[in-house]
Amino acid sequence: MYRHAVLCFCLAVSVLFPCSESCELSPIHALVPKQLPAGYIISEQLNLQGCGLRQVAFTSSDPDFAVNTDGTIITLRGMVIATKRFAVHVKDESGFDWRVDVILTCKDKASQKSGNVVHRRIKRRWRPLPFDIVENDSPPFPKYLETISSASSVNHTVYYEISGQGVTTDPVGLFTLDKDTGTIHVTRAVDREQYPQFVFKAQVFDKRTHIETDAYLPITVNVVDKNDNVPEFVGMRVFTLQERSNAGTIIGRVNATDRDLAKTSHTFIKYTLLNATDMFSIDGFTGVLTVKSNNLDREAQEKVFVGIEIRDMGGAPDGLSNVGTIVVTLTDINDNPPTFKEKLYKGQVMENQQNVLVLRIPVEDKDMINTPNWKALYEVTRGNRSGNYRMETDPKTNEGLLYLIKPLDYEKTPVVKLEVTARNEAPLVGTSATWQSVPVELTVGDEDEGPEFSPNILYLKVKENLPNGTLIGTYKALDPENKNSNGIKYYKLTDPGNWITVVESTGDLKVANTIDRESPLVSNDRYNISIKAVDESKKTGNGMVILQIEDVNDNKPVITNSDLIMCNRGDTLSSVLVEAVDADQSPYSTPFIFKLGEKDDGKWTLKDASSSSVVLEQAVNMPNGLYTVTLLVKDLQGLGEEKTVNVRVCSCEREVDGVGECGARSASSSLGSWGILALVLSGLLLLLLCLLLIFFCNTKSEKFAINDETGSGGMLLKSNTEAPGEEVKDIFSVTDGLDGLDNGMDRDTKNVGDSRSNQKYFQDGGVYNTTTQDFATVNYTLPGNHNGSLYANNTYQKYGNVNTLDTWRSNKNYLDRKLAYFGEEEDGRYADDQLKTYGNEGMGSPAGSVGCCSNLGERETMDFLNTLGPKFRPLADVCYTTTNTKI
Question: Is the confidence at residue 68, as pLDDT, over 50?
C-alpha cells in the first residue's frame, strides 16, 4: 500500500453562493504513484462545505474509480498510470447535478520504490516518523523493517536497545534489534484486526559506561490493512410487507459489516440482488430494500426468498464477497371477496315447517383463513320482506346456512326465489372487486292442512249490555285445499266471561251473557275470544275474535269517600272536598252535577264544583260531632241518585292537602252512640251480676209458727265469719230444699203472702213488711217465704231425715208469730232484745259475730226452734235488713 507515498493531495472547493443552484466545485489535482493498487485512496473527502447540501449521491465517470458516500475517492482495481483524468458527479436531493474534475499525475520515477520490499532508510534522525508493516505479510521472515540512529553516536561508541509492545510485552519477540547497527526486523506475520498498531521505545547507551547518551526514542509501527476479511451480514434478515403495497415503499435495510480498516475500500460494501429483481430493488451502498412492483400478491406467493450479494472494494471484481438470503413475508389484506361456487343454489322445504336448516351455501375466499378478511357474513338481500329467513355462518367451513324461521304456505307460494349476498367481516381494500350475490330457489312441499280462518284476527264492534241471543257476527274458516267451509265445525277455546256462544255448524257468534265494558276481563275496551275450527279429517285451525266494546250509560256516579273529616276552625266556616267517579266513559260520565238532597236542613252549601268534585261547606258554624249530608250526583246525561256522606266535624290534629285528621280527644269522642250503648250494656251486666249475687245469698224461707209454750230457750250462736258462711248456706239449703219438696201446702202459703204485698203482715205494730219481686220465673217473698227449688238437691243430701221436714212445716206459724212478737216495742219488756242497728259489731259485742241465720247446731232435729228466746231478735233484725237491702 502506498497511502503515505502520495506526495500531495489537493482539494479545493469554492462556494460562490449560499444556494445549491450556484454552488461550484473546483477540480482536484492529485500526485500519485505510477503503480496504483486496488483500494488506493485518491482523495480523503470532497469538500462540500458552503454549498448548503444535505443529502447527495456521488458517481464516477471512470469505472476504475469509486466514490464512497462520504466523498472519498478510491481505486477499484490495480493499475499503472502516467496521468489520469475523470469526473465525479454530485447530485443532491432536489435533482441538481455538479461535476468535479479529478486529475492524477504520476510522481518522479526516481522516487519510486519496489513494491516487494519494505520501505527502509539507511540513516534516520533519532525521532523518525511512524513507519508501517503490512498485515499478514508472506514469508520469509525475519524481514528488515527500519534502522534507527542517534546523533550521540558521533561522540560516543553506543549500542541500542528496544522495549515495549511487540518486544518485551505481548506479542513478545515480534520485533528484534541489532544493538550495534540499530537495525529493526519483524519476525512473523501480524493480523491488523488483532494488533492495528505497536508502540515501543528505543534507547541508546555508551558502550563503556552503559549510560544513556540520548533521550529514549518512541517508535510507532502501524499495521497496514490488507483486504483479508470477507464482509458479513448483521442484523435482521426477515421483513414483513403488506401485499398490494405501492412501488417505492421501503421494506427495510439490509446491514453488513467488514472487519478490515474502516473508511477504506476494504470496507466499502456494495449490495446486489441476485433474484426477485422484478419485485424489489436495493440501494447498492445503503442496503435499503424497497418495493418495485404494485402487484405483490400474497395469494400468489406469501413468502419471497431474496438472495443478496455483499462485496467489498465497492463491488470491484477483485473485492471479497458473501451471499445471503433475506425473507420478505407478505401480510394479507382483504383484496379478495368471497365467491360462490355455483351460479344457482336450489333447496326444498315442506310447508308449515319453521326453524329448520334449508340450505348450505359454500363460498371460496383466497384471503388468509380464519381472519376477518376470510370470514364470510351472509344476508338474504331479496325475497325476505316478511322476515321468514335467517342466515348464519358455519365457523369451521365458512359456509352460509339458510334457515326458515316462519312457515311457508304451499297454496300461496309453491316456489320461493331469494338472493343471498356474501361479505367479509373486513372491508375490501386494494382491489376493484365488489361483494357477490347468488340466486336461491326453494321449492315448497304440499301437505294436508287444517282449516284456516280469514282473517286470522276478526275485530267486531259491539255495545255492552246487549240482550242474550243477539247475533254479533260470523267467523268462518276455509279448507286451504278446496277453499270452502263445507264440513267445518266451530268451537270456543277461550272465553273468560262466557259472554259469547259459537254456533257449531255456521260459526255465528251470539251473546250468551251480559257484555260489560267495565268488567276486569276487558282491557282497553277489548275482549278476546279464541275459536277453533275442525274439518272432517280432524285437522284443526285456530282464530281470534276481538270484541271492541262500545260504552253505554249503565253506571251512576259514585262518591269515592262517604266518610269525611271537616276541621273545626272556630268562627270560620269549614269545608271539605267531595269527589265522585263514574265507571262509564265520556259522554256518559263527567262533568258531574252536584246538588244537596231534598232533606237539606240549610246547614250546608256547595261551591267550586269541577268536573268530578265539589266543595261541601258549612252554612252555619257547627259544634264538633257527626253529621249526615245527602248529595245528589248526576252524570252528563242526567243519570244519578242521592248519596249520603258522613261528615265528622272535629278539632284536627293536623291537616295535609285539605285532608284533616282528628285529634286524640276527638278520636275518643268519636265513639258516639256505639260507645254510649257499650257503656249502658256494661252497666246492665253489672246490675245483673249484683242481682244474681242477691239471688244466691238470699235467706228466703217460709214463715214457721213457733209455739210460745215450748219456752224461750232459744239462743244466738257465736260466729267468727262476718259474711254468711257455709253454715248459713246450709241453712238456706235445708229450708229451700224442704220447701221444694212441698207440693201443696207451701204453694198456698206463698199465695197468701203475695196477696198482702206491701201491707203490715202482723197487727200489733210489727215492723216487718212483705215485698214480692220477680226475677225471671222465681218469686221471692220477704221475710220468711221461699221458693226452695234452688237448694232442693243439697238439702236432700245433707238432711235426709223426713222428720226435719215435718218439724219445719208444723212450726211455720209459730215462727211467724214469734218474729212479730219480738218486733213490738214495749217498755220494760225484753229491753235488751229490741231491734238495733249495728254499724260494726266490733270487739265486745254481746251477740258476737252472726250471719244472716244461726247455725243449725245438731243436724238430727229442729227442736232448737222451740227454745228461741229474746236473743233471737237481733238475728231476725239482721236477716230482715239483709233481705230488704238485697245484699
Answer: yes
Exposure string (b/e) for 479-504, b if CB count within 10 Å is 16 or more? bbeeeebeebbbebeebebebbbbee
To 5 degrees, how large is the angle CA 838–CA 839–CA 843? Answer: 80
d(CA 876, CA 783): 9
Query: Domain 558-667, what fold?
Result: Immunoglobulin-like (2.60.40)
Fold that domain 117-224 belongs to in CATH? Immunoglobulin-like (2.60.40)
Count of positions (residues) in the chain: 887
CA-based radius of gyration for the chain: 73
List 424's β-bridge partners, or say none.
376
389-393 and 400-404: which strand pairing?
antiparallel
Residue 94 CB burial class (10 angstroms; 0-12, 13-18, ≥19): exposed
Single-letter amino acid code for the residue at 58: F
Return the CATH number of the domain spanning residue range 339-416.
2.60.40.60
- pLDDT given for residue 420 in this prediction: 96
End-to-end, the C-alpha distance of the chain in Å comes to 162
User: Which has more confidence, 783 or 871?
Assistant: 871
Whether the model clears a pTM of 0.85, i.e. scores above it, the answer is no
- Of 324, 249, 230, give the one whose Cα is nearest residue 289: 249
- The residue extents of the domains of the chain are 3-110, 117-224, 232-331, 339-416, 452-550, 558-667, 696-884
Q: What is the pLDDT of residue 117?
A: 36
| Cβ contacts of 459 within 8 Å, gap of 6 or more | 546, 548
For domain 3-110, the CATH architecture is: Sandwich (2.60)
- What fold is seen in the domain 452-550? Immunoglobulin-like (2.60.40)
Matching residue, cell 326465489: 417
Looking at residue 183, its amino acid is T
Cell, residue 860: 238430727
Separation CA 44–CA 6 (nearest Å): 12
Helix, strand, coil % in the chain, rounded to nearest 5 = 15, 35, 50
d(CA 505, CA 475): 11
Query: What pLDDT, on the 0 to 100 scale, is given for residue 508?
Result: 92
Per the prediction, the chain carries an average pLDDT of 77
Closest CA to 80 of 129, 122, 38, 47: 38
- Give the whole-angstrom CA distance, residue 511 versus residue 506: 15
Closest CA to 554 of 579, 524, 585: 585
Please name which of 46, 14, 43 lies closest in space to residue 104, comparing C-alpha atoms: 43
Same fold, 3-110 and 339-416: yes
3-state secondary structure at position 528: strand
Q: Are strands 640-650 and 625-634 parallel, antiparallel or unpaired?
A: antiparallel
Q: Which CATH superfamily is domain 232-331 in?
A: Cadherins (2.60.40.60)
Residue 333 CA to residue 429 CA, distance in Å, equals: 7
Please tell me the distance from the alpha carbon of residue 689 to that of residue 683, in angstroms, as a whole number. 10
Of 135-144, 406-415, 811-820, the range with the lowest mean pLDDT is: 811-820
